[in-house]
Amino acid sequence: MATAAREHWNSRFGFVAAAVGSAVGLGNMWRFSYLTAEKGGAAFVGLYLLFTAAVGLPVMLAELTIGRGSGKSPILALAHYGGARWKALGGLFVATGFLILSYYSVIAGWTLRYAGEALIIGLPADPGAHFGEISQGFGAFLFHLAFMGLTMGIVAGGVTKGIERVSVVAMPLLFVLVCGIALYAATLDGAGAGYAYYLNADLDNAFSMDVLVAAAGQAFFSLSLGMGAMLTFASYLQRDSNLPNESLIIASADFGVAFLAGLMVFPIIFALGLSADISGSTLGALFVALPKAFINMGGIGRLIGLLFFLALVVGALTSAISLLEVVVSAAVDGLEWTREKAVIVMGLMISMLGAASAWSLNILDVMDQIANNIFLLGGGLALSIFVGWVMDDPLAEVAEGASGVRWFFAWRQLLRWVVPAVLVFVLYHSVPTTVANIGMLWRGE
Q1: Distance CA 71, CA 409 (A)
Q2: Which domain holds residue 299?
Q3: CB atoms within 10 A of CB 256
Q4: Which domain CATH number covers 175?
Q5: CA–CA gap between residue 240 and residue 151 (Å, rounded)
Q6: Which residue from 182, 296, 352, 367 has the least number of CB within 10 angstroms?
Q7: Which residues make beta-bridge pairs with 201?
Q8: What's the structural domain count of the chain?
């Protein structure tokens, strides 16, 4: 498909909303706040921001630069700048998006079910038992299919009439919901204990190996890097877009939602005396402790629970849209399929792969570890090497639309030295655990 025929965003806000939607997902709503509380509070936040500046933003700007410059999906974009031998990296991005969406939509299906139940029949009396029943099996598979169908319908509408139209409504709605619930949580008796737990300043453990790996990994994962989503969305940008500014806005919005989510979740949990339910499990906070808290609130709890799970659905949907778009765009560009055919074929294939996660939480967990601890980090490492060392004059490409920026040289040096060092460090500490878990699943342990 010729570049001239490629769709473009109708507005800058449309692109930013879609890109923020890609970055802001379920991980922002529970993973960031949980890690913050468990790994040093304010100290973890400081490390996270440091790694975002040193690793996350440089890689994001690299993806945006390649996407806008080539005007192509990941496989052809890498070939455009590096030749055929770099198609494999683009293929890894597409495969990563394919894999992540297959199990992510299962988790998103849970949020869809909880939102529907909160609206129609109310939240379950025993959230722990209920989650055990609905998180695996035929019901989980059906809601996985329902969520995939919703995602496919939006992506089939195209960049402007589908993705952009939904994103410009969904992202402001998400911010309003999160801010509204956080403000309500601040009024609860005992909310202060939740804030204290969330933002404790544990400087003694802040620079332990475990915390450093978690902060670096979260800074990379939370921005939807290493899967080609930002690259793909940038391929629909006009040439005069200011990529550094867009990167800062996306990263700031992503952090803002993640930080606010903690101000929303922990005061509610602690105000209702349910702090023990979050120990040892991020899912425990999201699908067990919070529903218990909403039930204990009485009548207002049903409304707050509905709004909370609606926010989760919105965040999950905007991220899923970007994941499917990576795969669809690659099929449209590389196989010359129509968008409708690509959505149907690839969407059904992803749905079929997701069936395994719908029937087994162990499979879901291992898929998540493979994607996050190996594919995303490996893809980001290769991309930083590509732009830092292989790509011809990326500084000229990124400077278009952003002339006068003096730190572009530092950007390439970060990609050459700092980003690879940090990602190798995280890979070194995460891959052995992932491989061990794969072995345990294979042996049926």
Answers
A1: 24
A2: 3-442
A3: 16
A4: 1.20.1740.10
A5: 30
A6: 352
A7: 41
A8: 1
